[in-house]
C-alpha cells in the first residue's frame, strides 16, 4: 500500500542532500571540534560554516547562534535562563495560551516557584490581542515568549509589532520559531527579537538538533554544564555531522524561498477544500486560510466525524495526518490550542484533524488524499444518520 505523509508539522523527512552531507561527515570528519590539531580544526570549520549559514538566514551574527539538542532545549534555556538571571528586575512573564508544551510546561514550573505568568488569550483565528499585550507589559515584566507560527492552526503572530512593543519595556522578547523557520521570513534585528528557538527536524534536517539565537547583548546562564563548548554557553561535544546537515537544510530553504513554499502549500489547501466543496461535505477551517496564516498547516473540523475515527480510517488507507500536536498526540487530553480558540465545549475539539504539508509532497498525493478524505467522511456521516 502506498503511504502518503501529510504530518510535516510533526517532523519532516530528511533532504537527500542533508543525508549525503551527514554521511560524508560521519565517514571523514570524526575529529573533536575542541581539539587544536588538524582533524579538530577541520571539524571546527564545518561547524563555523553551518553557524554562518544559519545566522545569515535570520540576520544574526555568527556568534549569536548556540547549537542545542533541539527546540525544547532552546525554549527551556531561553525561559529558565531569563527567569533566573533577571528575577532581581521582576518575576512577571507573558506568553500565550497556544504555545508548545516546551514553553507551557516551563511556565508552569516557574509559576510553582512564585513567578507571575500571564497567558494571553487568542481569538477564533488563533491570534493574540496587541492591546492585551500592551496592557500586561509592566515594569516588572522580564520576558515575553510568543511562537512565530502555531503548530496546530497555522496562525502567524505579528512578530514585528510585538517586538516593537516589547522593545519599549524591560522585557526580553523570545520567539519559538520551530514552525516558522522556512515558512515565514524572520529577521531578528528588524523584529527586535532577543531570543529565538529552532529545531532541525522540522526543516528536513536531522532530529535531536536545534539552535538558540541569543542577542549579543544578553548573556544567559547555561542549562547544560560541563565543558566550554559553544563559547562556554552550552556544554557537550558538538554533533559535527548533524550540524553540517542542519546548515545544509537551512541553505536549501534559503535557496527555495519561503514565498515559493507558501504558494505551493496554498495550492495544496485549495485542492482539498475544493474537493470537499464539490462533494458538499460540511466542514469548518480551524484558524483560517488566507493572510495571517502559514499554509503548510490546514486544520479542519469535519462535522459529525470524530477525530479518532477519521484519523484511524485515513491511517488504514495509507495517509498520515494528525489529530493535533505530535507532542500531545499520545495524551487523552484535548487540544489546548483548539480549546483556547473555541472553548472546551466546542464540537471542534473532538472532530478535527491537522493536515500539514512539506517540501516533498506532490499535487498527485494531495489529490489522492482529498478524494479518500471525501469517501471516508461520506461513509461515516451516512452511518451516523
Folded structure, characterized:
The protein is an alpha/beta fold. It folds into 2 domains: 4-12 and 257-384, Alpha-Beta Complex (Aspartate Aminotransferase, domain 1), CATH 3.90.1150.10; 16-256, 3-Layer(aba) Sandwich (Aspartate Aminotransferase, domain 2), CATH 3.40.640. 41% of the residues lie in helices and 14% in strands. The strands form 3 sheets. Strands 2-8-7-6-5-3-4 form a 7-stranded mixed β-sheet, sandwiched between helices. It has a 3-stranded antiparallel β-sheet with strand order 9-10-12. Helix 6 (159-167) links the parallel strand 5 and strand 6 (172-176). The chain is globular and about 70 Å long. The model has no long low-confidence stretch (mean pLDDT 95). Residues 4-369 form the Aminotransferase class V domain. This is Aminotransferase, class V. InterPro entries: Aminotrans_V_dom (IPR000192), Cysteine_dSase (IPR016454), PyrdxlP-dep_Trfase (IPR015424), PyrdxlP-dep_Trfase_major (IPR015421), PyrdxlP-dep_Trfase_small (IPR015422). Keywords: Aminotransferase, Iron, Iron-sulfur, Metal-binding, Pyridoxal phosphate, Transferase. It is an enzyme of class 2 (transferase).
Amino acid at each position: 500500500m502506498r503511504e502518503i505523509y501529510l504530518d510535516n508539522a510533526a517532523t519532516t523527512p530528511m533532504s537527500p542532500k542533508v543525508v549525503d552531507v551527514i554521511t560524508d561527515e560521519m565517514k571523514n570528519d570524526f575529529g573533536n571540534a575542541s581539539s587544536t590539531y588538524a582533524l579538530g580544526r577541520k571539524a571546527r570549520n564545518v561547524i563555523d560554516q553551518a553557524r554562518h549559514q544559519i545566522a545569515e538566514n535570520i540576520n544574526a551574527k555568527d556568534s549569536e547562534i548556540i547549537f542545542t539538542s533541539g527546540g525544547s532545549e532552546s525554549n527551556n534555556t531561553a525561559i529558565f535562563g531569563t527567569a533566573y538571571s533577571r528575577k532581581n528586575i521582576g518575576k512577571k512573564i507573558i506568553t500565550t495560551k497556544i504555545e508548545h508544551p516546551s514553553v507551557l510546561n516551563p511556565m508552569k514550573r516557574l509559576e510553582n516557584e512564585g513567578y507571575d505568568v500571564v497567558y494571553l488569550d487568542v481569538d477564533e483565528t488563533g491570534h493574540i490581542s496587541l492591546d492585551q499585550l500592551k496592557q500586561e507589559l509592566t515594569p516588572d515584566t522580564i520576558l515575553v515568549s510568543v511562537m512565530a507560527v502555531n503548530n496546530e492552526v497555522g496562525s502567524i503572530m505579528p512578530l514585528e509589532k510585538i517586538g516593537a512593543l516589547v522593545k519599549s519595556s524591560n522585557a526580553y522578547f523570545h520567539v519559538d520559531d520551530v514552525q516558522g523557520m522556512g515558512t515565514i521570513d524572520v529577521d531578528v534585528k528588524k523584529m527586535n527579537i532577543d531570543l529565538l528557538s529552532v529545531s532541525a527536524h522540522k526543516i528536513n534536517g536531522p532530529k535531536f538538533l536545534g539552535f538558540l539565537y541569543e542577542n549579543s547583548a544578553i548573556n544567559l546562564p547555561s542549562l547544560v554544564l560541563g565543558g566550554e563548548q559553544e563559547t562556554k554557553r552550552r556544554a557537550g561535544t558538538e554533533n559535527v555531522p548533524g550540524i553540517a546537515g542542519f546548515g545544509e537544510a537551512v541553505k536549501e530553504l534559503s535557496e527555495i524561498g519561503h514565498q515559493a513554499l507558501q504558494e505551493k502549500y496554498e495550492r495544496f489547501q485549495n485542492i482539498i477544500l475544493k474537493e470537499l466543496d464539490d462533494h458538499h461535505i460540511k466542514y469548518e477551517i480551524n484558524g483560517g486560510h488566507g493572510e495571517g496564516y502559514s499554509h503548510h498547516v490546514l486544520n479542519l473540523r469535519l462535522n459529525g466525524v470524530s477525530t479518532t475515527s477519521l484519523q484511524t480510517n485515513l491511517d488504514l488507507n495509507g495517509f498520515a495526518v494528525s489529530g493535533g500536536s505530535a507532542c500531545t498526540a499520545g495524551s487523552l487530553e484535548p487540544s489546548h490550542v483548539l480549546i483556547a480558540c473555541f472553548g472546551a465545549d466546542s464540537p471542534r475539539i473532538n472532530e478535527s484533524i491537522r493536515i500539514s504539508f512539506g517540501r516533498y509532497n506532490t499535487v498527485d498525493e494531495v489529490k489522492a488524499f482529498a478524494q479518500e478524505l471525501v469517501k471516508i467522511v461520506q461513509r461515516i456521516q451516512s452511518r451516523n444518520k
